[in-house]
Amino acid sequence: MKHFFSFILIIIGQSVFANVTVYFNYNVFNTLNSKPYLETSLTIVGNSVKFLPVAGGEQASVNISWRILKGTEVVKSSNYNLMSPKTTDTLNFPSFIDNQRFSLDNGIYELELIIADNAFPDKKTNHTQKIVIDIKREKKIYSAEIQILESFSKATAQSVFTKNGYDLVPYNINYFQKNQNSLKFYLETYNTDSVLGKRSKFLYSYYIENSESFRKIPSWNGYQKQTAQKINSLLAQFDISLLPTGNYNLVIEVKDSLNKIQLQKKWFFQRQSNAPVIPDEMTDRNIKTIEDFFNAFQNKDSLKQFIECLWPRSTTKEREWQQIETSKKDPNLMRSYSVDYWKKEAGDSLNPLVIWLEYYKQVLEANALMKCGKQKGYYTDRGRVYLQYGKPDKRSQYNSEPNTYPYEIWQYYRIHDKTTGRFFTNKRFVFANFGIADDCYTLIHSEVRGEMYDERWKFRLVERTQQSQNIDDTKPAATYGNNIDDNYNNPR
Hints:
Immunoglobulin-like, globular, five-stranded antiparallel beta sheet, single chain, alpha+beta, 9 helices
């Protein structure tokens, strides 16, 4: 694979066809040792073309014709048929993607694209696009535009999807529906070694911001430390299942060892979600008190979820009151309850707004990482323990041990039970996933007083292959690859 500078001009999610729905993006990039390249990407929406019976299911076929002109001269042309994947689902026909690369010199071009459904060859639609290629090599840090991905995987063979050893399948739309919960992205950066110095350390910092106010959205940020090279690449993703409906920018920055921003790239996108809306004002300087925060919310469902998420850290009496307050669905009562709750938690020495925001950040993490189907993370066993006792010092996951259900072991060196105020040291929790196909884990054993305690919990992990009627028997027979005892005694 040739490495290249990539200067991308993107028409984000532009549907350019009336008869066949196609989303079109194009990139302009330059190799280090040869002429620039034009990279095009098409997504053909499956339900907009005709699928016909073939061996093994149904399949669609479209004809794609490219012409690239410089003035009146045709400098590149191509004509081919693109086949969809085969499918047996006649209600949801799959979309399919096409990538092409054309080697071009600097200049002004016109791209002509004709696409037709081969089931209806007389129905053709034309699209033209002006392309400007003006690659200038300068001694500064360059970067591709952010590339959004449908998926990525280690490359096993070279293809037009391959970059830096990965197959990157593009996502050509800047809109994410409710059932799309992952934002995957890729960025290549160049000349960091010549600008920052060979082997110098730098940082990729990435986050999501509100596209109108440019405020960072809490809990959606990350970073990668790297060493400067001729070409550096960032491949990362966000779980956006809890990102509320709205307009956002994905922002990626390159920061040097002094934390100075050397490069910044942004990509605009829209999100539709069932997640409770967090007003942008939650990070506003005008939000100075806990009253300011909850008064900023008008949505009843959001206020209801703010109370519901207190369940893991609440006493039995508090839970009863919470059920009463939320059942009334009175915004003023719910605001008043939330304010009073966090003022009581803060006491005289803490800031109630600070401890609430810190807790809600943990709630978002639990909902994203520990949900069970449509059940919120704070109602699951793992989410409840996470919010009641805090983040474990060690969390060991065992998803593929022979003869056992998938399980996790959490170890706490010192924990505080938020519902009782008691402290414990060196305690463990064991969770098991008996459904396998889902991500629902049940607490089956704990050393913490008041939690589920089962001396025979190891038999529950192997009950598909081993059972014992002896109630005093607590240790299953050892089998190949089974390390339950070692995993429990020495969590990693």
